Amino acid sequence: MTIAGRVIGDGVKLVRLLGRGSHSVVYFGVTREGQPCAVKIFPPHLALFAEREFRHALNLNHPRMAHVQAQITFDTAPALITTYARGVTLFERYTHKPALVEERQAFLLTLSHVLDALHFLHDRGLVHRDIKPDNIMVEPDGSAKLVDFDLSGPAYEGMAMPTRIGTAAFLSPEARRGDSLGPENDLYGVGVLLGWGIHGQLPEVGEALPPTRDPLTPLWRALTREDPRKRPHDATEVKKALLELALRTYLY
């Protein structure tokens, strides 16, 4: 059943479906003032996910992040109204692979913007915990925004029992174990994306991708080290290294 055309909250009109996630569906909407927005609707039994995302993301106002603006109820379902992140998901944007060969400047801009968002998030004591292509919206020039904060929470948050949080292909070793997660976990996800940009593919479980002549290879390896204590932990320093290494010339 479509709900496009419905008006909810303070005059937000639902226009079309944008996508479906594991916890919600997202609609493109237009506010009473004519401004675009996104409306994230959760099933009633996942109300705690909606509440958690609203609580953690409400004051996260940064140009490289979707901003949660309000929490409402749609019929009996909890919903969040957020700013609209233009573009398409990272994998939809970079269809010519490897991205760092085919569209190096744009892909570097995308990773830089993700790192800007992570620095802002980490500086406030929070971690995203689900860095993956579906949660990065990219425009044609490579500009990007980080979205979807329903798995986010305080850095090194303790759980009652080991809890695996994230998406399989991008899980850090500590996330696979169900350990508490810090900034190094988010930066591991950036490392997986960097490796994908270098090689044009994600490794199979237990597979080691081969070395290349790309000067970004050492950074990719550092970000995806098994031991989180041996990984970079500062998103701003990673961005600095990314841009400095990218200036070096190389031949495939």
Cα-atom radius of gyration: 18 Å
Number of strands: 11
CATH architecture designation of the largest domain: Orthogonal Bundle
Which outline best applies?
A: globular
Order of helices and strands: EEEEHEEEHHHEEEEHHHH
Distance from first to last alpha carbon: 51 Å
Q: What is the assembly state of the chains in this entry?
A: single chain
Main sheet specs = 6 strands, antiparallel
Contiguous helical run count: 8
Structural class: alpha+beta
Residues in helices, as a percent range: 25-40%
**Overall average pLDDT:** 91
Q: Supply the CATH superfamily name of the largest domain.
A: Transferase(Phosphotransferase) domain 1
Question: Which residues form runs of ≥5 with pLDDT under 50?
Answer: none
Q: Main sheet: which strands, in order across?
A: 1-2-3-4-6-5
Strand proportion = 15-25%
Query: Which fold name is given in CATH as the topology of the largest domain?
Result: Transferase(Phosphotransferase), domain 1
Number of domains as seen in the coordinates: 2
CATH class of the largest domain: Mainly Alpha
Protein model, in words:
The structure is a single chain. With 252 residues, the protein is α+β, with helices and mostly antiparallel strands. The protein has 2 domains: 7-83, Phosphorylase Kinase, domain 1, CATH 3.30.200; 88-246, Transferase(Phosphotransferase), domain 1. The protein has 8 helices and 11 strands. Strands 1-2-3-4-6-5 form a 6-stranded antiparallel beta sheet, with helices on one face. β9 and β10 (144-146) form a beta hairpin. The radius of gyration is 18 Å and the shape is globular. The model has no long low-confidence stretch (mean pLDDT 91).
